[in-house]
Amino acid sequence: MKKTLIALALAAAGLSAAHAQTVIKIGHAGPLTGPIAHIGKDGENGVRLAIEDANAKGITIGGQKVKFELVSEDDQADPRTATTVAQRLTDSGVKGVVGHVTSGASIPASRIYEQAGVPVITPSSTNPKLTQQGYKVTFRVIANDLQQGAAMAKYANKLGAKKVAIIDDRTAYGQGLADAFAESLKKEGVQVVGREFTNDKATDFTAILTKIKAKQPDAVFFGGMDAQAAPMLRQMKQLGLGAKFLGGDGACTGEMIKLAGDAMSGDAYCTQAGIPMDKMPGGAQFNKRFKEVYKGDVQLYAPYSYDAAMALIEAMKAAGSAEPAKYLPALQKLDVSGVTGKIAFDKNGDIRDGGVTLYRFQGGKWEALN
User: Which of 53, 160, 198, 317 is the most exposed place for a label (fewest CB within 10 A)?
Assistant: First the structure.
């Protein structure tokens, strides 16, 4: 009897070992509270979907069955909080991170990940400086501000804008995009008649816009997020400033349309790094699944967050290890097909062949122009 019990115990232990799973933590960092929490949560849901899909496949890495687990942190889109969050994630034992959402958070946090040797892939931070620091663990799955600025400058010229005023929110994202746009305008021969600044908490832009109105610009460009872009557009209309409104991807959201309300018109344009959802190789399927699971529309970066998480997992599979030092070389050489397109990085960690799309507000939504 005793021998039988021992045999059963050993068999149970063997069965348990066979079904044991190694837990691999993947981090996410972005604003989950505050005025752009809708964008941070959008990205978080994209990562969560990628992890659920990976777990459903029963992936093995190095011969061991693994289970991926999401560890998400709120950086409040704040540079100081972002470094604290990055330290917390690396201390918790995450093997890779998707984030941060804003350039102002990504740039200071990148130093923490570099010191810890933990790969981090941003789905949305577009400031060129992020990947110009020489860090080995920093990657981006979306086009940068230089590409967006050039695209919008060309289109502003095409629209017949001879004089353009520029406003930015002084964040790494907003200022970086505005700088890239201003530089590209010079190449297009378009005059910058004013350069004004605000911040990413402001809601009253009357003084700035009154000053700009006196210069009679054909267009006003804002480098910043929808939480500021929407009231700015409303106040432009209230002041009778009839210039076209131009923005980057931070203003290219469904939330912008909701917040701006009746102020939205066919004179509002924006650029978005990447390509429209319906033009993405896996866009239609992803969009359908996202709506089914989260009962809402994709805000902006969820497909890129999904691809960033997928890239980390694919690199781990290729290397046969979830240890950052071992799978980093595989990540650097990665060449796979994602929801948004081909995922492959250049020597700086930037996505190769990143696209930019121009949009115009018409028919109650942002419509892709090209």
Answer: 160
Same domain, 176 and 191: yes
**Which of these three, 273, 290, 321, is where a domain ends?**
273
What's the pLDDT tens digit per position in 163-219?
999 999 999 899 999 999 999 999 999 999 999 999 999 999 999 999 999 999 999
DSSP letters, 134-176, are --SSEEESS--HHHHHHHHHHHHHHTT--EEEEEE-SSHHHHH
Report yes or no: 350 and 131 within 8 Å, Cβ to Cβ: yes
Whether 337 contacts 314, CB under 8 Å: no
End-to-end, the C-alpha distance of the chain in Å comes to: 77
Token readout for 11 is 């068999």
Segment among 6-15, 120-129, 220-229 with least mean pLDDT: 6-15
CA distance 243 to 94: 48
**Contact predicate 223/173, CB 8 Å:** yes
Concatenated DSSP letters for 166-202?
Answer: EEE-SSHHHHHHHHHHHHHHHHHT-EEEEEEE--TT-
339, pLDDT greater than 50: yes
Residues 177, 104 share a domain: no
Judge whether 153 lies within some domain: yes
Tell me the mean pLDDT in the region 72-95: 98
Neighbouring CB atoms inside 10 A of 242's CB total 12
Instruction: State which of 273, 289, 320 marks the end of a domain.
Output: 273
Domain region containing 231 = 145-273
pTM of the model: 0.82
Select from 170, 128, 167 the least CA-distant residue to 350. Answer: 128
CA distance 52 to 48: 6
pLDDT of residue 20: 62
Q: Would you list the DSSP string of 45-92?
A: HHHHHHHHHHHHTT-EETTEEEEEEEEEEE-TT-HHHHHHHHHHHHHT
**304 and 262 in a common domain:** no
DSSP 101: S
| 324 plus 259 within the same structural domain | no
